[in-house]
């Protein structure tokens, strides 16, 4: 009899503990980032996103991610069943737990990996190197203006891909009932006898026409996928373009290729291509980006000078760079620029991208070089008096200062050339 008080207090402690544990369970709607009025579709979407994010294969050695993965599966199982959802809405976690214990005599959840495989195929794992079948990778290309390679950018893109049908969770059945095909006994193939000649038979294995080779039959096909178990739908992913990434960079999105209940999805590989610059688009209003050309870490620019500028100097140019900052080019009066001459401007090329050093601190970014190539244009026409003046000037100065270019360059001189 005198044991009773201690038993009672143990019970109290246990009860307290279980309330604490319950209190620690996050609200299912919060966990999935949904409001109480979320639709079935929204619940499925949230499950798809979060279960992938917290999957233990993507978070190795992270027990808190693993716990989240299990919780997200629990939340989905509760909220995707209209009956359980009603109970949860009304009585919360505890009510739901009691109900489940009543139902299954002891409760216990489904395997969260099973649920995951219904949404993503495979055995519930991403199966890199495992024994699981893996679907093909998917190639996608994205065209980006040079400006985006210079500045870096986070951009969303949408592609259509095959996804496991959310409505039937990859079963192909409206009511979840999938039966083994009667005709082939689930083998997907039947043996047929062909008579080649009287008394001579050939046995041929044929795809079962009762189930189309699947080995399973569905009475009520899912109205969304028509029993195909998969649908083609657009998905939106986010690509992070780092400053200075080379063109042709391949960004890998793990397990984002076509899905199927029969295999683990391969990777989607996004190739970054440089877009041909288009003249006269709004972009050129802000920067001179249309006219820059990239070569690895360097940029090239062509600058046009008039004959007067090239020869006499005394000019400035303001280039608006790809991020809007201004690079000033100039020559003092009397500084000559030869046609085709190339200036090198250090630190005005592309940012230098260090793969895998994303979050490391540099003392400011490093940049390649900017090469400025000069072109000189001569005037096409001259007015008569102007022509006369210039002619007279040339005549005056060439006799005094002219150098024989032919002799100067070591060529056998036929007719003399001169510099002036
Ligand atoms: C995870 O932990 C195991 C054992 O503690 C270790 O061998 C393994 O390298 C770890 N993996 C990662 C990705 O940290
Ligand atoms: C473990 O996973 C959680 C949830 O995704 C994340 O917030 C946390 O940063 C991860 N911890 C480590 C050490 O990666
Ligand atoms: C270039 O910019 C400088 C400083 O902003 C300004 O003084 C100069 O006039 C500009 N030159 C030209 C050619 O626009
Ligand atoms: Zn069959
Ligand atoms: Zn379906």
Write a structural description:
There is one protein chain. This protein has 420 residues and is α+β, with helices and mostly antiparallel strands. A four-stranded mixed β-sheet has the order 10-11-15-14. Strands 1-9-8 form a three-stranded mixed β-sheet. It has a two-stranded antiparallel ribbon with strand order 2-7. It folds into four domains: 20-110, Orthogonal Bundle (Helix Hairpins); 130-172 and 225-276, Urease metallochaperone UreE, N-terminal domain (HSP40/DNAj peptide-binding domain); 179-217, no CATH class; 282-377, Sandwich (HSP40/DNAj peptide-binding domain). The protein has helices spanning 4-24, 28-32, 40-54, 63-79, 82-104, 112-120, 146-151, 282-286, 307-312, 384-401, 405-408, and strands at 138-144, 153-164, 179-180, 189-197, 200-207, 216-217, 230-241, 250-253, 268-274, 293-295, 298-306, 313-320, 326-333, 342-351, 367-377. 31% of the residues lie in helices and 27% in strands. It has eleven helices and 15 strands. Residues 13-20 have low confidence and may be disordered. The chain binds 2-acetamido-2-deoxy-beta-D-glucopyranose (NAG) (3 copies) and zinc ion (ZN) (2 copies). One zinc ion is lined by residues 181, 183-184, 188, 208, 210-211, 215. One 2-acetamido-2-deoxy-beta-D-glucopyranose binds at residues 60-61.
